[in-house]
């Protein structure tokens, strides 16, 4: 196991280095002049040039990249010119909001996707199978930001069932103390049940938006694997031996497809982290995705680079975690290739 973890971490280093270089190049290709933006609309050419010198943008690109790499070696992601805080502090403060949203959406997608996939495999061509196909097509064909806007229009504007899409908690509730950063858990730890209900209501629409995006791949992978396993000899033998149908289905058959389903869930989680960027903006969610978009609009380079590097590191860690769990579930799994 230690060898697997070390090999995965070492093999990720060239990828992270490529992400650092590519992100630096792409941020310098963004339209607009950061010096003119931060100097203000009434700035003179002299004041813009002065700001450019202060930001270090007057240096050549190789010199800027060399300085950026030295910063990273010291664990310094730079300073956000928009917030005035260090990028690391901004990301640490906003990451729990994004993770709470993504984890809740992944739980919804996993429970719904696995249930639909198993139900579709048990009765191919039935009602559940058609529902599985419909939700898969809907989640994959409709852009997440459009689905989010549609849900806000229907459930907030027309029906009035959902709270205003203005962040993690309605203005009528006090914010909980940051104990874990996950406000569903923090409100329960404080014994604030009304606050828990308020946080839950704010989560529903963005979680459904992200969850629908992830249901399709999980349901399709579960369905394909279960159809193959349910027709295998060991399942027919288990049925002939008189084992309960639920035990044959969930203990023997589903266990055989658990590893590929788990790999799909890991892939969906990575995609959800990227899809969060637009969903957070639609619902006013104070996560790292909205932070990245605001930084792009302001041509604030350091937060963009820090956000992309954080996403790459999370992607590596998630895949490492999935590999470890896969080995624990099935010791026959090898990653030598």
Automatic annotation (TrEMBL):
Main location: membrane
Domain ABC transmembrane type-1 residues, every copy: 95-326
InterPro entries (UniProt xref): BPD_transp_1_N (IPR045621), MetI-like (IPR000515), MetI-like_sf (IPR035906)
Alphabetical UniProt keywords: Cell membrane, Membrane, Transmembrane, Transmembrane helix, Transport
Membrane topology according to the record: Multi-pass membrane protein
Record Gene3D superfamilies: MetI-like
Domain of life of the organism encoding this protein: Bacteria
Protein name, entry field: Peptide/nickel transport system permease protein
Compartments where located: Cell membrane
UniProt similarity note: Belongs to the binding-protein-dependent transport system permease family.
Bilayer-crossing regions: 12-30, 101-122, 134-159, 199-219, 257-279, 307-329
